[in-house]
Each structure stands twice: as C-alpha cells, then as structure tokens.
Design a protein that fits this description.
- The chain has 325 residues and is of the alpha/beta class.
- 31% of the residues lie in helices and 15% in strands.
- A nine-stranded mixed β-sheet has the order 6-5-4-3-2-1-8-9-10, with helices on one face. A two-stranded antiparallel ribbon has the order 7-11.
- Helix 7 links the parallel strand 4 and strand 5.
- Helix 7 packs parallel to helix 8.
- The longest helix is centred in the first third of the chain and has 17 residues.
- The protein is globular, with a radius of gyration of 20 Å.
- The two termini are 17 Å apart.
- The structure holds iron/sulfur cluster (2 copies).
- The site of one iron/sulfur cluster (SF4) has 12 residues, from loops.
Length: 325
C-alpha cells in the first residue's frame, strides 16, 4: 500500500470509529491495515539455524526454541515435503526465499526453485551467497527470480562469513549474471554496518566501473529491526524500540501490524507457518501446510481471537510494528 493511500485509509477508519464502536468492525479494520493489499506472500526457511550468525540476528533464540520443542525437530526441508506443502499454497502467492536462515544452505535448493518455476510462482530471494558450492554456482545460472537481494559481509565481522576465494568468485559471477538480467531497481546490494568487507567492496567497485552494477542498488544500512524486541542497543545502529504500554480499561485503541506482515508468514521445514519474520521465538505458529491452506491460515483467526485488534496479543507487544490508532 502506498503511503498516501494508507494515510487516507487511516483517516477514514478514524472517522468511522469516532461514530461507530464495534469489535467486529475493528477486527476488519485491523486486518486491512495489516496486509500489503496486493498478493499474499510467503517466506521460506529451508533450514533451521543459520551458519552466518550475524550479530544483529537472534539465531541463539531460534536454536534454544528448537531444543525445547519436539515438533520443531525437523530442521531441514526435504523436496518431498516441500511439494506436499505447496499443494496448499495458491500459485498467485509471491514467494520470498529468506525467512530465518540462508537459503543456499539446503541441498535441495535448486530443486525447490525449479519446481516453483515450472508452476509459475513469482520468486524473490535474499542471499548472502554463502552456502553449498552448487547452490552458489546456481545463482549465476538461474533466471527464476524477479528480484535478488545480495546481503553481504561487512567490514567489522558482524556477519560471521569467511570471505575466501571460492566465495568471492561465485559472488562476482552471480552479481554479473543477475545484474545483467534484472533491472537495477530489482537488485539490492545490502550491508548492515559501516561498509562492505574490503574484498567484497573491491568486487563491487570493479563492477560499478564496468557499469554492471548501478550505484542505486547499493544500500549501506545503519538501521536494524529489533526482531520483536530481541536485538537492541547495538553500537552505531538505530532501532525503533516499542514502548508498548498496557492498555487501560475503557481505552478504545485499534491495533494493527504496520509492517503489513499478516499476509507474509514464514514456512518452516516441518510445514508450520510462523506469524512473521520478526518472531525468532517461533511461538507465533498459526498452522501447518500439511493439512491447511495458506488462504485459511492468513485469515489469522487465532491471533484475532487472542485480541490482536485491541492490543492484547502478547507475542507482538515487543515489536516496533505493533501500532495503535
Ligand atoms: S541475518 Fe540472515 S544471514 Fe545473518 S544470521 Fe540471520 S538469517 Fe543468517
Ligand atoms: S511481530 Fe511485529 S511484524 Fe510480526 S505480526 Fe506482530 S506486529 Fe507485525
């Protein structure tokens, strides 16, 4: 939703709520403010646990959750299960290869991508370009993606990626290939921190000089998500902490997800759909694709039953995007 139309929508909702008080209407308003209004989206986590262990990512939380929860024991997505889950994912759904770990770490990554390509799903990826060698090489062969985000190592070792010869070679080839294929506004070359790792920076500079990379694609970020209150106070980074205040009795506020994530869950290797990419505790599971359709899960019946629209949904209270009107 574009900013202007969203502002207009919020004003209209405020006006209606001034005259009409209705819980049902509030749930309806909360739902429309909490989605992106285009197509449903789905993020995919192909393996639980990410080897990159970035300082700005709560990987230890996800690992400790897994240890305590037998249901989450399936840590690696298999091809057979993947096809089974996708029987419940409409082909209009936009697929994001991101989630809670690096997608190139799964040995079936290529099969997943090719399978969805034959079924005409729109696919986007965010990758560090570090994973299995064949998957790294595949990134300079596949035309499956509508956009590619290269999330690359920094100069302060916040991302624990060993920058070696093979990595640099595959990264350069993938950059050359994908930047040659896609318009520059569908390529994002991102680093969290002050700058790219010096050897990565050399490659980027070389490809800028050769006019393969556009400077517009570069994004050096000093802002990080709190990941639902799990990451904060990191030196030199900005975050937007949520100072959520308990709702007083009679307070008539309407709550919604200003990050528009109620139609962008994260699929786990066992087929569970977790609420969103901000919840690394994995406590927000809304259902499983083995026996339920994504369309049904995105009705978000559970969280609204637990009071999401009135600010009562505990899981979101530490998240900077749990917003009230
Ligand atoms: S930010 Fe991405 S690459 Fe870094 S540890 Fe988390 S999932 Fe892995
Ligand atoms: S945790 Fe945050 S981003 Fe996720 S659904 Fe809740 S409010 Fe939205």
């Amino acid at each position: 939703m574009k900013n202007l139309s969203k502002k207009l929508l919020i004003k209209t909702i405020q006006l209606i709520r001034f005259f009409i008080k209705s819980k049902k209407l509030d749930i309806f308003f909360s739902k429309i403010l909490s989605i992106k209004f285009k197509k449903n989206r789905l993020e995919i986590t192909t393996t639980i646990g990410c080897a990159l262990m970035c300082d700005y990512c709560p990987q230890t939380l996800i690992k400790s959750t897994i240890k305590k929860n037998e249901n989450l024991d399936e840590r690696i997505m298999t091809y057979e299960n993947f096809k089974l889950y996708f029987e419940n994912v409409p082909d209009k759904t936009v697929i994001h290869w991101s989630g809670y770990s690096e997608p190139l770490g799964n040995k079936n990554f290529k099969e997943f991508i090719n399978y969805l390509q034959t079924k005409n799903y729109e696919q986007h990826i965010s990758t560090t370009m570090f994973g299995r060698k064949d998957n790294e090489e595949f990134m300079s062969q596949t035309k499956a993606f509508k956009s590619v985000t290269f999330h690359l190592p920094d100069d302060s070792n916040l991302m624990k990626l060993k920058v070696g010869e093979q990595y640099l070679r595959n990264l350069e080839q993938a950059l050359r290939f994908q930047c040659g294929l896609l318009p520059s506004n569908d390529i994002y070359i991102v680093v969290f921190g002050k700058n790219f790792h010096p050897q990565v920076e050399n490659i980027i500079q070389k490809l800028i000089n050769e006019k393969i990379i556009s400077k517009k694609s570069l994004d050096i970020r000093d802002h990080i998500h709190t990941r639902n209150g799990e990451v904060s106070n990191m030196d030199k980074f900005r975050t937007d902490e949520n100072n959520f205040k308990e709702i007083k009795k009679g307070e008539n506020k309407l709550y919604y997800c200003s990050y528009g994530r109620l139609d962008q869950g994260v699929m786990l290797p066992n087929g569970d759909i977790n609420l969103c990419c901000q919840d690394y505790s994995l406590k927000g599971v809304i259902g499983n694709l083995k026996n339920e359709s994504l369309i049904k899960l995105y009705k978000q019946e559970y969280i609204y039953k637990k009071g999401f629209a009135s600010g009562q949904y505990n899981l979101c209270k530490k998240c900077e995007y749990y917003t009230s009107l």
